[in-house]
Amino acid sequence: MDILMQVSSGFFLLIGSFLCLTGGLGILRFPDFYTRMHAVGVTDTLATAMILIGLILYNPDFMVDVKLMVILLMTIFISPTASHALANAARYDELSIQKDSKSDSELTSSNL
Amino acid sequence: MLIAATLAILVVMMMAIIRAFVGPTTYDRVLAVNMFGTKTVLLISLLGFVMGRPEFLDIAIVYALINFISVIGVLRYSNRFVIKHSEQSKK
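Above: the input entities. Below: the structure tokens describing the complete assembly.
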């Protein structure tokens, strides 16, 4: 039973790390603001939930599990709210949906 | 596996910092800082387990709340006084 908990915890942590890396690649390489926001807003909630579930499975103490569940619940509510507020503010500011070629060339010259 | 997840989160935080410095509009920077804060919460709770001190979770809870308040505060400020995204509006 113990080894089963360890293996499933490692599995959840692995999936969470993969989703984190996907979101980071998205925020770095996507062309304009709204696509970057799509990448971050989608992966952020799921990656956080996966890593926290992995930590809950990893540790047997009940009180620590309750604290982890509080963080999980807060993340599930907070992350989409912040994404929505950000997209709403950008839309009211009439940010254009265009590819900004300047930032892309800057990024490739400085980073790769 | 805990250490591998910690390293992955550190790499993602570096990516978010690069976008926060490069990002052409202010909203890109706010987005990157928000992502950085979420990943910081995860990093604090993972480091608590790596070092064997789960008391760090209290700090992670407080950090999540402060991150949310700061993002909402910046956006509320931007509703009152419009942030200029001058690099795009010049075109």
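Note for the figure: The radius of gyration of chain A is 18 Å.
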